[in-house]
Amino acid sequence: MLNTTHEKWMDHAYREAEKAFKKDEVPVGAVVVAGDRIVGRGYNMVESLKDATAHAEMIAITAAADFLEGWRLDDAVLYVTKEPCPMCAGAIYLSRIPHVVFGVSDSRMGACGSAVHILQNSSLRSNVLVTSGIREARCLGILQAFFQKLRQKNAQER
Description:
Order of helices and strands: HEEHHEHEEEEH
Strand content: 15-25%
Number of helices: 5
Shape: globular
Structural class: alpha/beta
Largest sheet: 5 strands, mixed
Strand order of the largest sheet: 2-1-3-4-7
Oligomer: single chain
Helix content: 40-55%
């Protein structure tokens, strides 16, 4: 796939991240693409739902499985603005998504090569294609803006 295609779909994931930002959630967005159309979308809703598993990827994967009426997403690509964590990487692996494209790496919790690599792990027989750095500056920018806003809010409350 050309980077322009990846950029097109990442822009959709970014719009999901903007929704999270507006709801005071960590701004991560995701879309699942199959057959040149979005079949699932999601953004972080951890605070809104009071659910630690309500990550953008989890919501998008669930929506895609519901739309496609099956849990095997072996013809899909997941686009997400931030590198998936171990929980989300496990869901990606179990749902058989063959390709993950993300914007910004996460050196602390990233499970696609930054902290650990769940998606390309021979002991798991996992060989998911991972493409990183798509719209990286934009994806990083919204995260930095969110955490700056949060720090300012916390400083005012002291």
